[in-house]
Hints:
39% helix, three-stranded antiparallel sheet
Amino acid sequence: MAILLYGSGLRINNIDFDRKRIKTLGKGDKWRSTILPPPIIPVLHDNMKQVKSLHHTDLEEDFGEV
């Protein structure tokens, strides 16, 4: 599921944790939003921590900045 979402263009900046919403760009370049289910919020936060840690390690080992 994560690969499908990422491949479809959904990025972390499309997630509004404060409002519990996911924003997507739809037909006609109109932004739409849907509900971010509360049970998934801690899972996403944990994943973000892991990715940030991996990114920091990669930077220390000169693997780029992306």
